[in-house]
Amino acid sequence: MLELLYKMQPLDFVYLLVGIILVIFSIQSFVDKDHNHRIGTGLFWLLYGISFIFGSYMSKEINGWLVIAMAAIVLFKQLGKGNYFESAIDFKKMEALRIGNVIFIPALLVGIITFIIGFFTKLGALVGLAIASIIALCVALYITKAKVGQSFHEGRRLLDAIGWTAILSQLLAALGYLFNLAGVGKLISSMVASIVPADNVFLIVVAYCIGMAFFTMIMGNAFAAFAMITSAIGVPMLVAGHGANPAVIGPIAMLAGYCGTLMTPMAANFNIVPVALLEMKDTYGVIKAQIPVAIVMLTLNILLMYYFL
């Protein structure tokens, strides 16, 4: 066991810590007698925690079955909310007045410390984020005078509010990987080449930007869409075909992809999680408010990319 720990990289310890926290959340759910779906919710976070702790040591098939089991729990609607030992509203208002804007210090520390560690050390941004989060938690506990145990209850409350969408980013990353293996990029390239004239730069730009937005809407992740659409349209048709500067069209294409992010529930972290946290009645309220802005931005991105060509 000690030998295994010595071989672990800094990022492995981050995954281990996240997994342990998820297991604690699962235990809290299992023992929560006020939770109507405590077994399903506890099992969901337990399986998720296992994937973080032992995922690198298990076969791809076992990891796949864990995902299927988690999906089954969601399918049968066995996720829910329980009792998180929250303070009374009056007490929260009193604490808000007492602490004031000082409460924002932990949040600011997360960004500042992550940047410092990511920029000035070799640990990387993810490890820096983990270290920053631990430091910010300690500062938050000092400011609020709360107990360490309550931080786990609050963490579970937020995670339960987010629900299954917490794992969506990882699933979408896997989807992008599968799309590339399946040769979807080559298929898109041949389809666009058969429809769009090779000498019509404007139509190629339209296909590139709309393709970025469309596949981001499907995959929920502009990064996954970027690799596929750029290799299918951007590089062969604009860079190689018309001498476009990749340093110019790349950022614009990414921004076009983010226009798709504003219009899809697949981008759960941006569009569905806020709805859950704010307890909005309209599940797609955030998306509906963003669609007009996204369409205007996408149009401007098309014109901007064409201008620089």
TrEMBL record:
InterPro entries xref list: DUF979
Keyword field: Membrane, Transmembrane, Transmembrane helix
Pfam families referenced in this protein's UniProt entry, alphabetically: DUF979
Transmembrane segments: 13-31, 38-56, 62-79, 99-120, 126-146, 158-179, 191-215, 222-240, 252-277, 289-308
Signal peptide range: none
Protein name per Swiss-Prot or TrEMBL: DUF979 domain-containing protein
Organism: Veillonella rogosae JCM 15642
Taxonomic classification: Bacteria, Bacillati, Bacillota, Negativicutes, Veillonellales
